[in-house]
Amino acid sequence: MGRNDLLIRTFLSTNWQQVLSDGSVNLGNITYILMKSLGMTLGNALHLSPESAMALGVWFARITGLSMFLAYTGAFFTLSYSPLKAIIQGTPKALWPAPMTRLNAVGMPTTAMWLQCLLVSLFILLVSFGGDTASAFYNKLTLMANVSMTLPYLFLALAFPFFKARTDLERPFVIFKTRAATLLTTGVVVLVVTFANVFTIIQPVIEAGDWNSALWMTGGPIFFSLLAMAIYQNYSRRMANEPEWAVE
């Protein structure tokens, strides 16, 4: 509730035409721009001088940046390794090139981690110093990921009734004890995620006739699905040609 209240107050305090019309605004720095605008609006509401209101906005942005820096620093060590642990070590080795799955003396996939470091650093440098073209590229990647990141949850929700139907699994505790409750919960989750994705895609078209953003969000799941299919096809060929991978 507190987060929703903060979002509503931020939206109400922002002049979208004046604050967000600058071409330098992107999905990476919009948080700081909005917080600066919020601080300036608060300063004006308190009848501060223009200079004081501007300084208050700057301090809002700085405090936001500091808090996010501390939070991200604490999460950095987990976030830098957990995705690789799930993607690289949680899947068959034959799915990836051999260097990606090679572990060092302490059991860390160093090659994959260095590759991740280089890619993340490259994106940061491009967005920070690449100008409008790099910002537009970053925005398009974010648009492609918007819908794509929610589709796995949709598949998990659709699989939930079939998981509940299995009787050969040990379950320490059960929340949904009847089939009706299971189907109702699944239906609600599927409808919410589906409608959220549909309206996320059509919102730019309805509000601003922005077909470009809608097409990028639609193309995201298609692109990542094709990429996943290509990786899986490569895995299938490797398993067929090199059966020794099956024992790893």
Automatic annotation (TrEMBL):
Keyword field: Membrane, Transmembrane, Transmembrane helix
Transmembrane segments: 59-82, 103-129, 141-163, 183-202, 214-232
Lineage: superkingdom: Bacteria
Protein name, UniProt field: Inner membrane transporter yjeM
